[in-house]
Design goal:
17% strand
Length: 246
């Protein structure tokens, strides 16, 4: 009844690599770092103890043996990426689907079915793990409606209580815990409407009692294009900003 274990370090190292492949699909420097972080930095043996440099040797050996393939499969994940042939076929199918979606978006605008709002710590969001967070927007974009070049006052992070809004996998919105400030990563007003609606749906599904928004990209939300989209989606105006209550 007890699983048979192996003391062979090569077999153990490849077994750990297979776990990463099952978990992430494409193994990169970022996914190894995320795995180490998830382990609390307490991994003191095996290929993960040496970080990506040690795991790279295991993955490269598997590639030479014909078990894996190395290449640049996903943009912004670094030059060294390892995965299986089956995953590559799936990625190609996803890429074709995205191209069709872009074509439909050009005709019909932002697609609500391709928009989701989820916890910033959700494994479905790669930002802050496999993907770096994009640079915070500056004042003066169409979302804030303000002039100037100062950066937004905070950066996004994988924090409990924070939410992210994504459209076709791209980060559109970051809302800190409590909702006082938001970062918007688009100037497309149609997309603002879609993500505002998705945010309200998420807040209602979570039965959020109340939430107050004061700033978007470091500027008053009441003076922003996204603030108008939030009001149309269900937020209400208040002296200090916008409020939501379920």
């Amino acid at each position: 009844m007890v699983p048979r274990t192996t003391s062979d370090p090569t077999e153990a190292a490849y077994a750990e690599a297979e776990v990463l492949l099952d978990r992430y699909g494409v193994v990169t420097r970022g996914s190894v770092a995320a795995e180490q972080q998830a382990g609390g930095g307490r991994r003191d043996e095996g290929p993960l103890a040496g970080g990506f440099a040690a795991m790279y040797k295991v993955l490269a050996a598997a590639e030479e043996a014909g078990r894996l393939r190395r290449g640049y499969f996903v943009e912004r994940l670094g030059a060294a990426q390892f995965t299986t042939s089956a995953t590559i076929d799936q990625l190609r199918a996803v890429a074709e689907d995205q191209e069709d979606s872009r074509a439909r978006q050009d005709d019909d605008g932002a697609d609500p079915e391709r928009t989701m709002v989820l916890a910033a710590t959700d494994p479905a969001s790669a930002y802050g793990a496999a993907l770096d967070w994009p640079e915070p927007p500056r004042h003066g974009d169409r979302a804030s409606g303000q002039s100037g070049t100062a950066k937004a006052p905070h950066r996004p992070g994988r924090k409990a209580g924070a939410l992210v809004g994504m459209h076709r996998g791209d980060l559109v919105l970051y809302m800190e815990r409590g909702g006082r400030t938001m970062l918007l990563f688009t100037e497309d007003e149609d997309l603002m409407e879609v993500v505002a609606g998705a945010l309200v749906e998420r807040l209602r599904a979570a039965k959020t009692a109340r939430l107050a928004v004061e700033q978007v990209n470091g500027a008053p939300v009441l003076h922003s294009a996204f603030g108008a989209a939030l009001q149309r989606a269900g937020f209400r105006s208040s002296p200090s900003g916008l409020r939501f209550s379920s």
